[in-house]
Design goal:
seven-stranded mixed sheet, globular, alpha/beta
């Protein structure tokens, strides 16, 4: 007589049932649990386009497919880790906002109604966490019979430390969010931090002049690290606190991410810094 299924099997069975039901029920986090840390230098068997024009965004933003009727498009999370061999379907607009390490998608969901005419993408390296966000988006869309809400957000499993320029053209993005990244406290682990001299050059590449990189953390040492590295980069300048406080995205970033809510419950501090992408100097 077979024994009772273990926790891993229960999680797999639940996620399979979600797919079979069309993921119309809001997913439960406990069935998508994964280790908090993922090694960005490992081979995670990820697929990615050779260049941005080869990426098919139609499965992430079906309501924005050019010359397509939104009501006839399927609400599915399939094929999120495969790049179509056929020419990709064109969207009516480009992805402009990216949440790097989006976690369980709290920021994406909160920003969706704030920026209804902008396509926002969460990028998350952990497979089960990104799957949760994808199922969450499908469930939110299913609750809106008129298909007007949450059509502008999507989630992709990806390693931004390695492949960010594979997805986005030069100057394509207007905003990048880096919310509560892994602090990597040990000095030998600092090379894995998501903000560094090299990575800031990639952020400068994909951000348009005037675009903004948003950072928030509850670790003061990491905040100082991110400020130091962004301010030292010739393509960025720090935004003043006065301008920062009137940006509506900042309040959302402070209060709506899962990590931000946890810091609030623990009565911790939140350190925020914004950096504007400068115009390139004349050659």
């Amino acid at each position: 007589m077979p024994g009772a299924p273990n926790k891993k099997q229960k999680r797999e069975d639940y996620r399979l049932a979600q797919k079979e039901n069309g993921a119309t029920n809001m997913p439960k986090k406990k069935f998508y649990r994964q280790r908090a840390h993922a090694n960005p230098f490992s081979d995670h068997r990820l697929t990615y386009p050779i260049r941005p024009d080869g990426m098919d965004w139609s499965t992430f933003f079906p309501a924005f497919v050019a010359d397509a009727k939104p009501e006839s498009l399927p609400q599915t999370t399939e094929n999120t880790e495969t790049i179509a061999k056929t020419p990709p379907k064109k969207l009516t607009k480009d992805v402009e906002v990216v949440d790097i390490g989006c976690g369980f998608g709290g920021l994406l969901v909160a920003l969706s109604p704030v920026m209804p005419d902008t396509l926002l993408l969460g990028m998350e390296i952990r497979s089960q966490v990104s799957e949760f966000v994808q199922d969450r988006i499908v469930a939110l869309r299913a609750k809106d019979p008129e298909q007007k809400q949450y059509q502008n957000i999507g989630c992709l499993r990806a390693n931004t430390m390695k492949f960010l320029p594979n997805f986005f053209r030069k100057g394509q993005l207007s905003k990048i969010f880096i919310c509560f990244p892994d602090p990597h406290f040990k000095q030998r682990k600092h090379k894995a931090r998501i903000v560094s001299t090299t990575l800031n050059s990639e952020y400068a590449y994909v951000l348009k002049p005037g675009g903004i990189a948003y950072t928030i953390t509850d670790v003061e040492n990491l905040h100082e690290w991110m400020v130091q590295h962004f301010e030292a980069h010739p393509s960025f300048e720090r935004i003043s606190e006065g301008e920062q406080d009137v940006d509506p995205c900042v309040e959302v970033m402070r209060t709506e991410t899962e990590e931000g809510k946890k810091v609030e419950r623990n009565k911790g501090q939140k350190f925020v810094a914004l950096f504007r992408r400068l115009e390139d100097p004349p050659w």
